[in-house]
Amino acid sequence: MDASSKPQIALTDEERFPLLDDLSFLNALKQDEFAPKFNFKSGDRLDAVNLSKVKAYKKKNCEEKSFWTQEQTPIWLNEYLKWSTETVPFYKNKSNILNSFPTTNRDDIRKNPHLFVSDEADLYELLVYHTSGSTGPKLDVLFDAVSQASWVPQIESILQDFNISITSCKKTVAIALICAQEKTLTYASLSAYLKGAGILKINLNTSDWNHPDDAVKYLEKFNPQILTGDPLAFMALLDLKPNLTPKAMVSSAMKLTKGTKDTLESYFKCPVIDLYSLTECRNIAYATGIGHKVIRPDLYLEIFDEFDDIALPYGERGELVVTGGSNPFLPLIRYRTGDFCSLKIEKGIPFLIDLEARNPVVFNTKSGIKINNIDVSNVLSEIPLAGFKMHQRKDKSIQFIGYSNEITAEVIIDLLNVIFKNDINIDVEIQKISQNNDVEKTKYSSELISFCD
Q1: Where in the chain are the domains?
Q2: CA gap 32, 64 in Å, rounded
Q3: Where is each AMP-dependent synthetase/ligase domain found (predicted)?
Q4: Contacts of 308 (CB under 8 A, 6+ apart)
């Protein structure tokens, strides 16, 4: 898929929701007097066969959890490797012994996404998700309806630890994804798995609404049971002081600091759960006092040396590597996450200890308007940058170092001025790329404190 391509609407609502005859609640969500200017349409596309597969996934991986041990790999691993080497082009003609596999990374998927598609995948089921590119260039991740819908039972399995359940019925909003970005896809949808309950993705940016106070009125009217989002979005929601009673808030994509967690829990009177997930395989673990508790027995986790293809012993710190999943469009074998931790098994459950994942980086204009680093990624992903470093100094000026043989500093300055509303001082350096230099990964940093410590 071309990197500049935008989502296309090709299906009817009946095709998006083949099991739901009554779409009146969907229409109510879309046509409400306080509704946002939704810019996309989404549906789970679950037919009866696929819905049964999602339920079977829940029973096997979310209810009857059986993880691996320090001494023994999971029982499904050998069959999974055999299936991958027989049906997935990227792995074909390789030994089906795990230790014979080298690690893979985002560049492998970005350059050759078609090679990761199993011969058994149904192309009619293909769904494409575009990552924000918050840790590098954008990446198209392919799913099918079952692996896409399975994120809900994964969330349910976490909520069970808090004695929380999602009410499944036609006239309630089960989950709302809250965003606070300059621009993002927004939609109202339904979940066949949750018996027609509503699923929302909204953006708090006032330009997405007909009136500035409509966001609060809309959310208060439908009062979602579960709120998901990143720490920036949740703090932006807190600023609106909405009268909401969520059962839980699930924070992901960025590090959730203790201060932010405490502040949100104090106001919303519910647990705020720090979730670790990857677009490539969805939810993995959530933060506890011990470490991040792993929730997915269908993922086998290893720790590797950051630079060499060497698996490290249990207890040693290194890069988290993932094998497994349920997605025929992207089976993972020894996939490097770019995040660092050590592994510990406690009473048969793996924990990620001292996980160092993506940190929230919020930039400020001179006048104090907050800018989400995702908005920067979205804009800069459209131009040929191999990577960049962007840093905000204490005086709020921006230092930018980019790696490209095509882009000039003037182009970057013009784009950043648009993002920062011409209210920022910017220093830009573009470094040429040669065949023997090391281009650093995309990195954001700031000397300003934007979240509670």
Answers
A1: 13-356, 362-446
A2: 41
A3: 127-324
A4: none
Highest mean pLDDT, choosing among 72-86, 387-401, 431-445: 72-86
Q: Are 316 and 70 in contact (CB under 8 A)?
A: no
Tokens of 127: 């769904």
Supply the pLDDT for residue 26. Answer: 97
Strand partners, 430: 402
Burial class for 128, CB neighbours closer than 10 Å (0-12, 13-18, 19+): middle
Asked if 350 and 322 touch (Cβ cutoff 8 Å), the reply is: no
The topology (CATH level 3) of 13-356 is: Rossmann fold (3.40.50)
Query: Are the C-beta atoms of 361 and 351 separated by less than 8 Å?
Result: no
Q: Cα(98)–Cα(118) distance, rounded to whole angstroms?
A: 18
Determine contact, residues 388/380, Cβ cutoff 8 Å. Answer: yes
323 - beta bridge partners? 300
The CA distance from 314 to 433, in Å, is: 38
CATH architecture of the domain 362-446 equals 2-Layer Sandwich (3.30)
pLDDT at residue 386 tops 80: no
Q: What is the pLDDT of residues 22-56, one digit of tens each?
A: 999 999 999 999 999 999 999 999 999 999 999 99
pLDDT tens, residue by residue, 329-338: 999 999 999 8
Nearest to 26 by CA among 42, 39, 15: 42
Give 396 or 255, the one with higher predicted confidence.
396
CA-to-CA separations, 55 to 151, 153, 357, in angstroms, rounded:
12, 8, 31
127 exposed, middle or buried (CB, 10 Å; 0-12, 13-18, 19+)? middle
Q: Average pLDDT, whole number, for the chain?
A: 89
Is the dihedral angle over the CA atoms 226, 231, 236, 241 positive or is it negative? Answer: positive
Alpha helices in 285-408 (DSSP H): 373-380
The answer to whether residues 176 and 187 touch, using CB atoms and an 8 Å cutoff, is no
